[in-house]
Design goal:
4 helices; single chain; 208 residues; alpha+beta; OB fold (Dihydrolipoamide Acetyltransferase, E2P); globular
Length: 208
Amino acid sequence: MSQQFIHSTNQKIQQANNTDNKNQYLTYHLGDELYGIDILSIKEIIEYDDVTIVPMTPSYIRGVINLRGNVVPVADLPSLFEHTPIAITRRTCIVILEVHSDDGKYEVGMMVDSVTEVIDINPDDIDPPPSFGTRVHVSCIKGMGKTDKGFVILLDPGLFLSLDELYKLADSLERAQKKEAARADAPVSGNEGSLVDKAQEMGTGASA
C-alpha cells in the first residue's frame, strides 16, 4: 500500500470528520470479502508495522503497536470467528478506530488485508445484515450497503465494545499511559518503551 494512497485517504477521513458526514464509509478487504466502516469512527490508516505480542491474550488480539507514544491494541477479526488469521503482505494496513464507551473513548487498531476507497452510501441503500455467509459474525454487522459495484458488508464499530479482553486491555493501557505521563510530568511520547513493557505485563497478569 503506497504512502501516497494512505495519505490521500487520511485526508478524506479528516475532511469527513470535520464536516460530520454520516454517509461515508471506508471500504477494505478481509480475504475476498469487501467491508465498510463508518468513516466517523476512524482516526487514521497506517501501514502495517511490527506488532508487539502480549502474552496470554486471545488469538484475535495480535498485539500492540506504539502510535506516536500511545500503545494501541490491534485486533484480527477473522481470528475472532475462528477463520484463518490475516496474512501479512505489503498491502496489509491497520485502521485506527476511536471507540466510545460509558467510561470514555479509546483507540483500537483493526488489521485489514487492504484498504480500497472512501464511498458514500445513503441510509436508504442499507439492507439488514445477512444471517450467514460472511467471515464476521452477523452480530457485528450493521447492514449491507448497496453500491454500483455490488454489496458492501458494513461493520458495526460498536462490536469492539463487546470484545471484553480487547476493551479491558485498551482501557488498562489508557490508564497506564496517563499515569506514566503524570509521573514523568512529560508528554506520553517520552515513555514509549515502558508502556509496551506494561502492555506485556498486563497480558501476562490478566490470565494468570
